[in-house]
Write a structure and sequence with these properties.
alpha/beta, binds S-adenosylmethionine, elongated, Rossmann fold, about 270 residues, single chain, two-stranded antiparallel sheet, Helicase, Ruva Protein, domain 3
Length: about 270
């Protein structure tokens, strides 16, 4: 049966890739020695899936829009692939083993949530290859002392070294999005739990988030306002840890955030 014509759903971030050139480039960037460990988030009508299927016949897809499934199946045809009709934010990745290699042209409205959820599943995740808004990708790969360096930068760089692979022009999509897109990739560092035990991740990320909550202010001041710890005590600890007491959140890289967290840890608990 032929699938019917679909109106793209804005609330599901449906901007479909219509360029086989870019779809193939994304699929070619994914590396996995086990095809059953490759997962595509949001396959939509299958623009990228068709190329993933070529390289990874037993790959998995997670799509929540029931209406689009007939078009997807029509495009990719039969095979050994598995489709999970589910909201990715509710999906239990543990059932799929590890290391997972996750790829997707992400729905932009929930891209940051998907990135957080999948990275928190590390080190069971081996790599992610995601298309997101260019501005979001630039924040993810940002360097210290730049305006783009923010919570998402530190969160992502905690798990590895993200790189932008290429940008994709507006004309490669239907409907045309308002902003350009970029594909970024990161291999997950398998030593993360040696650097910080998993049970401390949440408190570390809350610490970083507090630090960025008033990014124009000096870090000692914003941390003091957020945690209630005396500003002078924080400033003294900053100096002891080898930092200038006037630093701002955007001046630090992820290793420095970790060092600071470990230094101030006793005061935070
Ligand atoms: N991969 C296709 C392409 O490149 O043309 C579609 C990409 S489109 C930007 C995002 C896709 O994610 C849509 O198919 C949408 O239905 C799906 N999606 C949106 N929210 C989702 C969620 N919470 N869980 C799973 N899929 C979702």
């Amino acid at each position: 049966m032929k699938s019917k014509v679909l109106v793209p759903k804005k609330r599901l971030g449906q901007n479909f890739l219509i360029s086989p050139y870019y779809a193939r480039r994304i699929a070619s960037a994914v590396e996995s020695s086990d095809d059953s460990k490759v997962i595509e988030i949001g396959p939509g009508k299958g623009a990228l899936s068709i190329f993933l299927k070529e390289r990874f016949p037993r790959f998995h897809m997670i799509e929540m829009d029931n209406d689009i499934i007939p078009s997807l199946k029509e495009k990719i045809g039969d095979g050994k692939w598995t489709l999970h009709v589910s909201d990715v934010l509710e999906f239990d990745f543990r059932a799929l083993g590890s290391p997972l290699h996750i790829v997707g042209n992400l729905p932009y409205n929930i891209a940051a949530l998907i990135i957080k959820k999948t990275l928190l599943h590390s080190p069971k995740v081996g790599s992610v290859t995601y298309m997101v808004q260019r501005e979001v990708a630039e924040r993810i790969v940002a360097a210290p002392h730049t305006k783009q360096n923010g919570f998402l930068t530190i969160f992502c760089q905690f798990f590895g070294s993200p790189k932008i692979l290429f940008n994709i022009p507006l004309g490669a999509f239907v409907p045309k999005p308002k902003v350009e897109s970029s594909v970024f990739q990161m291999n997950i560092d398998d030593q993360i739990e040696d650097r910080l035990r998993r049970k401390d991740w949440e408190s570390f990320f809350a610490f970083v988030s507090n630090g960025f909550s008033m990014r124009r202010k000096m870090l000692a001041k914003s941390l003091s306002l957020k945690t209630g710890i005396d500003k002078q005590a924080i400033a003294d600890n900053l100096i002891q840890a080898g930092f200038n007491k006037k630093i701002r959140a955007e001046d630090l890289n992820v290793h420095e955030w970790l060092r600071l967290y470990l230094q101030l840890g006793a005061m935070l608990k």
